[in-house]
Every structure is written in structure tokens, then in C-alpha cells.
Amino acid sequence: MYAHATARILKYTMAVITVVTLHFILIRMMPGDPLVGLLGTRNYYSLLSLDPEALKAAGAEYGLDRPIHVQYAKHMGRLLRGDLGHTPYYGKPVLEVILFRMKWTLILLVPAVILSTVLGGSLGALAGWETNSKTDRLLTATFLFLQAMPGYCMGLILVLILSFHAGLFPLSGMAGEGSEGATRIGDLIRHTVLPIAALVLHGSATPYIVMRSVVRQSAGENYVLTAIALGLTGRRVLFRHIVPNVLPTLITTVALECGHMVGGVLLVETVFSWQGMGTLIYDAVVSRDYPLLSGCLLFLTIGVIAANALADLACTFIDPRVRDGMSHG
Questions:
Q1: What are the distances in angstroms from CA 37 to CA 22, 59, 103, 145, 187?
Q2: Measured CA distances, 157 to 138, 154, 160, 282 (Å)
Q3: Which residue has the higher pLDDT, 274 or 320?
Q4: What would the DSSP string read from start to end of 211-236?
Q5: Tens of pLDDT, residues 52-67
Q6: Where are the transmembrane segments (predicted)?
Q7: First to last CA, the chain
Q8: Could you tell me the domains of the chain?
Q9: Could you read off the pLDDT of 5-54 as tens digits, one per residue?
Q10: What's the pLDDT tens digit per position in 104-118?
Q11: d(CA 221, CA 275)
């Protein structure tokens, strides 16, 4: 078991190192001076025209006058110290800006992942158990439609109906200025309803389709037929026997979909003017702030890898077959 866990940790560590290495290579493959990618376009040309000596000192600080393997070692050392560089657009360390914005993205992403998994998984299990019923046909058509519609389009529709016409929720932004305490928390919750709803409606489609398929396949298994023969009712068979057996498949699916969910939340944030990682990346692209952009992409990559690692860990504890395979492997 410990050997298996060690192999998993090494695998995810190598994935992070690969991403960091590709980032290092891509910056140096860019046309022109690599300092453009390390300092940002605006900062680079400002130093080039006003203080060329400072620009040369910056190149020496990043080790650009050294051999490529020395540069790579220095780059890795800076990352291990948490030094992602300085963002010229905000005038602050990249890590400080990202950590501040990340919490606002997590406020949307974490509830959306949990709710979409519960909603899609439970309805998918019911549809798979009641195959070809009216409920199955209606739910499947609905979730296929939701899967085909991007999350940001769903957000625009919700804004148009529930905010613009009905006036039930704020059009965009976050908690209102000047509000404090419980009032500010309540205002923040009202601002999160539509973004989270857009993410849940779109994100629940894949868990629904996967659970419908695996429950439908498991309905003819021997352990299900035995449970029915012992007199258990349909819902008890479904939720006490089938769902625990197929739960690792759902967890793995959600982990694999995390990258898609992250991309969706970034676009939804832009629609709702939510000041999280989505708008941060947008600002970095528009201002050509390469240190900030690369830092954001690195954090998002690590987040997706961490989600897959947590899914592996959850499957290990939930499914005894995985534990048995690890102990014999």
C-alpha cells in the first residue's frame, strides 16, 4: 500500500515538474528577449528606454547570462521559495495577488463542484435504475441540453431572466460597497447565487450521464439480483448496494472534470464581473503581464493535479477493492 502511495506521489510530483519545465522552455522560446516574458511588456520597454543598466541587472538576476541548465536550476529554486516574480500591472508580488484572488474563485468553485456532483450523481442513479421510463427520458434530454450549453451562456441566460427582468439577483459584481458584518455576508451570498447556479447546471451533466450509464450496467449484476431476491425494495437496492459500488467511478469522473470546471468558472467570472482568477487572467492577458499569467496558470495546474490526487485518495478509502489491490501490488 505504501509503495502504491509513493508511486502516486511521485507521479503527481513529476506532472508538476513537467508543467514548470514547459513554462521555463516556452518563455525562452518566445521571439525576442526572454525578459519580456519575465518582466512583462510594459515593464521591459520602460526599463529599456529609461534605465538600460537596470534591465541588464534584471537579466543577471534571472541568470540569463548563465548556461541554460544553471538558469533552470535558479528558476526552480525561486519557485520553491514561493517567488513567482513581480506583476507590473498590479505592482505587487505575483504570489500575493494570486492568493488574494484565489479565495474568491474557490467561493464559487467548491460549492459548484459539490452541488453538481450531488445533483447529477443522484438524478443519474435514479435515471439509470428506471431506464426508459418517462423520468429517464426527460432527465436525459435535459442534461444533454445542459451539457451542450457552455457555462457562460447559461450565466447570460440567468442574468437576463432572473436579474434584468425579474430583478431577483444582482446583475454582476460582488458584495456591495460599504456593507459590513452580516449584511455584507448576505450581500455576498446573493451575488454568488447566479454564478454558482450557472456552474451547477452545466457541471451536473457529466456526473448525470456517467452515473446513469454505470447504474444501468450494474443493475444486472449478481449482487443486485441477490439483494432483490432477499426482498429489498428498489430504492434500497439502488442507494445501499449499487451506488456505493459505483461511487469510485463518479469520484474519478469529477476529478477528471475539474479542469473543465476550472475553465468554466473562469469564463463565468468574466460574465458576472467576479473578481477571482478568471478576471485576473483576463487582466493579465490584456496587459501582457507574463509573470502574472504564468503564475496563474501554474496555480490552476497544481489545483487540477491536487484534485486528481484527492480523488485517488478518496477511492482508496471508499472502495475496498482498491485497497486490496494496493496491498497485493
A1: 14, 12, 26, 41, 39
A2: 21, 5, 5, 22
A3: 274
A4: HHHHHHHHTTSHHHHHHHHTT--HHH
A5: 888 888 777 777 777 8
A6: 12-30, 106-129, 149-171, 192-210, 222-238, 250-272, 292-318
A7: 7
A8: 2-83 (no CATH), 101-328 (1.10.3720.10)
A9: 677 788 888 888 888 888 778 767 766 677 776 677 777 788 878 888 88
A10: 888 888 899 899 999
A11: 49
Residues 29, 40 contacting (CB under 8 angstroms): no
Could you count the other beta carbons within 10 Å of the beta carbon of residue 246?
A: 21
Report which residue type is found at 220: G
Contact indicator for 1, 327 with CB cutoff of 8 Å: yes
How many other C-beta atoms lie within 10 A of the C-beta of residue 65? 11
- Cα dihedral value 227, 230, 234, 237, nearest 10: -30
Q: Cell match 522552455: residue?
A: 25
H-helix or E-strand spanning residue 321: helix 320-328
Q: How far apart are CA 275 and CA 266, in angstroms?
A: 10
